[in-house]
Amino acid sequence: MPIYDPRGGGNVHIDKVLTDISVGYPNNGLVGEALFPRVPVRKQSDKYYIFGRESFSVDPGGDVRGPGTPANEIPGLAVSTDSYFAVEHALQISVTPEERENADNPLDPDRDGTELVTGKLMLAREVTMQTNVTTTGNYASGYSTTLSGTAQWNDYANSDPIGDTRTATRKIHSGLFLEPTVGVFPYQVMTQLEDHPDFIERIKYSERGILTAEIIASVLGVPEIIVPGVGLNTANPGQTVALSYLWGKDVVFAYVPPRPGLKVPAFAYEFCWTYGPATPQVVLRWWDNDREADIVRVKRRYDLKFTALDASNKSIAGYVIKAAVA
C-alpha cells in the first residue's frame, strides 16, 4: 500500500488513525452486535451452519463402544448449511484544506468527517437489523405476539409485562433448550415500564427504589437489556425532516452466545469479512486533484443472518412482542 502523499493524486492509503476512530465509534443508542455478534470470516462468501431442533436427537445405544473399536463419531450440532456473502458497504466524504485551515479547536474536519460517515454506515446496518428482527414472518409459529388494548404495557391496571416475558422465555427454551440472554426494550417501551406497578411492587422493599434497566432485567430474568434510543429521519433529501424512533415499540428477546463462532448456536450473526486479522472496517484516504480535497471513505463488508432455525427456516432462538406499548 503506497504511503499517503497529499500532493499526489489517486494514491489510496489505509489511514490507521482514522480507522481507529471509525472502529471506536460509540455505539450509543444502537443495538448492533448485542443481537448480531460479529463473526470474522476469511472469505467473502462461504457456508455456515444452521442450528435447528434436530440437533437434540439421540441414537439409543449409539455411545456404546466395544474393546478395541473406535467410538461412534457424530457430526456435531450442524443439521444443515447455508451461505453468506459479505457485501461491501461504503460511504465517503471530502475534506478540503480550507476546512482544516478554518477549523477552530476542538473541531477536527478529518475526525468529524470520519465519524459522520461511520455513523451513517452503522445506522444503515441498524435499520436492516431492526427490520429483520421485528418482522414476525422471520419467526417460527408461536414465537411472536402482538399486544393490543389493555394488554399493552402502558395499561398499568391490566397489562402483565412479566408474564409476557415469561411466555417468551418459555417459548425460546422449548425450541432451543436455552433461555434468552438479551432483551431489546426500545426507549419508548422502557420509559413506560419504569413506572409499571408490577415492577415497583417487586422492588419497593429493596435498597434502590428507582427502576433501572438493570433492575428490570433482574426481575425479568434476562441477563442483559438493551435500550436503543436512536432516531431516524425518514424524509427524502431536501424535504422537511421527519424524525422517529428507529426501534419503535417492539420488544425482542434472543439467545446470544457469550462466545460467537461458526459452530455455536445463536439467534443471528454478522458474518464480517475483515480487513486484516480482526478489523471490521477501514478508512481509506486519498487526495483528489479535481476536487482539491482529501476523500475519506469508510467501508465494511458483512452479511446479516439468522442461524438457529426450524425446518421451515424460521427463527427459534428469538421472540418478538409487537406493539408492547400503545
Overview of this structure, please?
The protein has 326 residues and is α+β, with helices and mostly antiparallel strands. The chain has one domain (13-52, 81-322): Alpha-Beta Complex (phage-related protein like fold), CATH 3.90.1690. The protein is 24% helix and 24% strand. The strands form four sheets. Strands 1, 2, 5, 12, 13 and 14 form a six-stranded mixed β-sheet that branches. Strands 6-15-11-7-8 form a five-stranded mixed β-sheet. The chain has a two-stranded antiparallel sheet with strand order 3-4. The longest helix has 25 residues, at 109-133.
β-sheet strand percentage: 15-25%
Main sheet, how many strands, which sense, barrel?
6 strands, mixed
Full CATH superfamily name: phage-related protein like domain
Number of domains: 1
**Strand tally:** 15
Q: What structural class do helix, strand and pairing data support?
A: alpha+beta
Just name the CATH architecture: Alpha-Beta Complex
Outline type: flat
- CATH topological fold name: phage-related protein like fold
> Would you tell me the overall average pLDDT?
88
Estimated radius of gyration:
24 Å
Listing every helix as H and every strand as E from the N terminus to the C terminus, the arrangement reads EHEEEEHHEHEHHHEEEEEEEE
How many DSSP helices?
7
Q: Can you give the helix content as a percent range?
A: 10-25%
Oligomer: single chain
**Low-confidence regions:** none
CATH class: Alpha Beta
User: Termini distance?
Assistant: 55 Å
